Amino acid sequence: MNIILLGPPGAGKGTQAQRLVDKFGIVQLSTGDMLRAAAASGSDIGQRAKAVMEAGQLMPDDVMIKIISDRIDEPDCAKGFILDGFPRTVPQAEALDSLLADKGLPLDHVIELAVEDDALVARITGRAAEEAAAGNARADDNAETLKKRLAVYHEQTAPILPYYRDKAVLKSVDGMADIEAVAAQIDALVQGG
Ligand code: AMP
Fold first, then answer.
1. Which atom of ligand 1 is nearest to 30's Cα?
2. Which residues carry out catalysis?
3. What is the pLDDT of residues 145-183, one digit of tens each?
4. Which of 3.60.21.10, 1.25.10.10, 3.40.50.300, 1.10.10.10 is the CATH number of 2-26+79-190?
5. What's the pTM?
């Protein structure tokens, strides 16, 4: 089972992806986590990603498409995967369609977590404070970067929604509900086929 979780930064994609991992034994492919690991390793791509993430901008489509295409080829993806943070632009969505077709893989569910901007600001500033208190602040989670990330989301990522809606594969859940209620909505979609 191959799933895309869509939604703005802080919508809860990572939390819900992790739950689907535990429930269905499929892997979570978080491009943000991959880029943060690359940044920590200090590789060339990592250094570039660090600067891009701190600015709240997006990495180039060709870099991200190659990363995700290579990752999907790894054996642990054979049972299925959840894309969390990819695609993030219409060209990434188009490239994903063609690379899945080339690999003979289906796209089973495209699920949007719908959350309003005001709720996200409250949620992300809260998360940043918690993570900072725990000693592992995400450098891209400060309020200033969040505004930039939301603007980039509306400009570059939100157009993915009509892209999938036109293909009649998009399903939306109310991401404002609490974690368990969102999880129940996602389960109903996934198990309903
Ligand atoms: P995330 O953890 O998904 O919010 O991603 C953190 C940051 O990594 C984003 O703000 C972008 O700078 C970068 N990033 C993650 N995924 C992508 C992607 N698919 N395309 C471009 N940039 C990305």
1. 3
2. 13, 88, 127, 138, 149
3. 788 889 999 999 999 999 999 998 999 999 999 999 999
4. 3.40.50.300
5. 0.91
Distance, C-alpha 101 to centroid of its chain? 21
Instruction: Please say whether the beta carbons of 64 and 86 come within 8 A.
Output: yes
Ligand 1 site: residues with CB under 6 angstroms? 9, 31-32, 35, 52-53, 57-59, 64, 85-86, 88, 92, 140, 149
Query: Are β-strands 109-114 and 170-174 bridged in parallel, bridged antiparallel, or unpaired?
Result: parallel
Q: How confident is the model over 33-51, as pLDDT tens digits?
A: 999 999 999 999 999 999 9
Rounded-to-integer distance, Cα 4 and Cα 2, Å: 7
From 88, 115, 155, mutation site for ligand 1 pocket: most ligand atoms within 8 A of C-beta: 88
